[in-house]
Amino acid sequence: MQQPTDLSPRVVTLGTAGGPRWWSSRTGQHRHGIATAVVVGDAYYLVDAGLGVGRQLERADLSFNDMRAMFITHLHSDHTVDIPSLLTMGLYARDTAKAPIAVFGPGDRGMLPPVSSRAEVAPQPVCPDNPTPGTYDMVHSIVQAYATDLNDRILDALRPSPLDCFSVTDIQIPDDIGYHPNDNPTPAAMAPFEVYRDDLVTVTAILVEHPPVAPAFAFRFDTVAGSVTISGDTTATDNLVTLATGTDLLLHEAIDFDWVESAYGGGKTDTEQASIDHHRVSHTSPEQAIELATRAGAARLALHHLVPGNTPPERWETLAATFAGDFLIPHDLDSISFARQDTNTHTKVGA
Ligand SMILES: [Zn+2]
Ligand SMILES: [Zn+2]
Cα separation of 45 and 238, whole Å? Predict the structure, then answer.
């Protein structure tokens, strides 16, 4: 198929806050939940669906009709909480003649994670009959939960079903890499594998390290004009370097470990220390993100999924001196080019 001559590949940072919180905006930072649009020519692809993603698409002037596919890095609520919004309100934003939006995300975890060794009594899981649903099950459960509303609209207003507008596929992990959700969630030395391909992009994935979440994916979008790699939630992992090698733009998560220490009381109790330990093995500092980007040879590095979600950019901007390429701490609705050797990389798009 003939490609458009000017793809102007870029990401739009719809939401740049991480974590399942309604972050206070008293710092002057108004960051929405994590969500990123990968824009290629007239089409775009959504990675994660954090708090406010539908409104942010509208503010970025990205029509729901132009979304080709959605990719969910992992099933934490801060990455999925507005999937119900897209499934319901999206029905009014999309031309019914359009092909369904392809949705790709983690499959069923298959087993619960181990109970913390700090638990005096083992807690009871919710929904013991189906305790670890994957993306396909999640979407169908959301449709079930909204069936009264949806059936009114389908039968009376002749709207389409979300199941006609979204086509969901659980990502199949290659079965020869030794993956196991508890024993080996991030197999070392695995190769990236293809998740999706169309005439504009090829999307590949690799397993990253975000325990106890499994699976957790990073995604890379390759186009003829450049590439972008999105880390998902992860601690510093060699697999991310493997996926991001030579990428034009790396969007990596970053957490302020000083904030973690203070938010959890400096770890004076076992419970507080457990929370601090969790963040240390599951997330990445900005300094580590710079090291990973350097090892990968990424031309540009932008930090997102910022924790705390009201971090002012000045907190980390001085680190730019330690990275050879462009270093960005974007606000929501920033547009960042991932075109190869593009010098005009960073502009504001939204209201
Ligand atoms: Zn997250
Ligand atoms: Zn997470």
Answer: 26
